[in-house]
Amino acid sequence: MIKTQKIKIHPNSHMTKVVNDLFNYRRYVWNQALGVWNEIYDGSLILNSKKLRPNGTKVRNELVLNKADWQFKRFSRVLQQTVSQLEQSWKNYFNLKMSSHMKPKFKSKKNYKPTFTTDRARIIKGKLVIDKPNEVDKAEWYPIKLSESIRFTGTLKLCTVTKLSDGIYASLSFDTDDNKQFSNTDKIAGIDVNVKHFDYNDGKKINIYPQKLERYYQRVTYYQRLLAKKRLVNPNNFKTKRYQKVKTKLRLNYLKVSRLQNEILQKFTTEVMEQYSEIHIEDLNVRAMIMSNKMGKNLHRSLFGRLREILTYKCEWYNRRLVVVNRLYPSTQICSNCGFRKTSETYGGKQKLNGDSIHHIHQKYYCYKCGAILDRDENAVNNLINYNEKTMSLLES
């Protein structure tokens, strides 16, 4: 089982220069590989031959054959991993299930995420040792300190080094057997996602938009306005030292936002895994929902897609079952008490309940058959818990 730990690293001055050179080298190799890929593809179109279409092996061999002298002082594995990532990026672009994946583009120095990947890194005496090129003297190579100890035992498969706003981080992927298992239960969890909070069993709620997060977003808005003003005042030469300082503060706040929300989601999903053996979630069309003019920003900040992603891999870790409820299942329109379903003829507007005329209230669910008055979100959670394929087939019929 592959598990990844992200750790902040502290290279010395010499290794910092080496890491920065590798960031630039990865960008150079990506651009070079993409150019070769496009040339091979254009040639296959001219000759009308699918056998001549580009792949990772052809592009890698072409790059290795035309290596410059200075490239032999860089990691050979960085080149190979970059070409593999480019090949995977093209596969994702043509994958119909990943319709939002962008077409591979050339990397610019002005807007590039500094990163590189190698599969020859090692952990020696609690320090990270990245592979040394043959052309470099051993005395000029130093192990890199880690800010925390390694949590997993096993073989280190991949090491991805990335530069963020507050330092340099290494994502270490281990092939490990370390896997904590929770006891099996017969309980089913239903998770109903809403803007800024998630509802699940017994009326429980998890707030994914705390007050601290609101303060971070206020700062983000403030820094964005400062940058916009600087661009308007001096559009031809706005990238001053003050502009870069404000941009760094903006990136730091975005980093704090992602870390805070990720911590909330990780704790919530682990708690769900520990208590329930089966988890039911809705199959939402998140991309279409985000396109809303009024709710797009709040939906984007509510992390619906990220929740499903975390639940998917944690269910594999802890041997739990994840059920993705059919997108057409009307969880908010069915009464969890008697099973009555509101249709276009009965749903919304003025209705009769126990002889009295009422209006449909968004937060409450009024059943027009049994007279139950339920909380809308709790009712949806109970319907998700009761969901199965047989239920959906009966509704469709």
Total DSSP E strands: 16
Structural class: alpha+beta
Strand content: 15-25%
Q: List the uncertain runs.
A: 348-361
The number of distinct helices, counting runs of at least 4 residues, comes to: 10
Pattern of helices and strands: EHHHEEEEEEEEEHHEHHHEEEEEHH
Percent of residues in helices: 40-55%
N- and C-termini, Cα separation:
42 Å
Number of domains: 3
The order of strands across the largest sheet is: 2-6-7-1-5
Average pLDDT level: 86
Biggest sheet overview: 5 strands, antiparallel
Radius of gyration equals 27 Å
Form type: globular
Nutshell version of this structure?
By secondary structure, the protein is α+β, with helices and mostly antiparallel strands. Helix content is 42%, strand content 20%.
Written account of the structure:
Residues 176-290 form the Probable transposase IS891/IS1136/IS1341 domain. This is Transposase. It comes from Apilactobacillus apisilvae. Residues 304-383 form the Cas12f1-like TNB domain. With 397 residues, the protein is α+β, with helices and mostly antiparallel strands. The protein has three domains: 2-175, no CATH class; 188-324, no CATH class; 326-397, no CATH class. 42% of the residues lie in helices and 20% in strands. The chain has helices at 13-47, 56-65, 76-94, 211-233, 241-275, 286-290, 296-301, 304-318, 376-385, 389-396; strands at residues 2-10, 115-118, 122-124, 127-129, 145-146, 155-164, 167-175, 188-194, 197-200, 204-207, 278-282, 321-325, 350-353, 356-359, 364-366, 373-375. A hairpin with a 2-residue loop joins strand 8 (188-194) and strand 9.
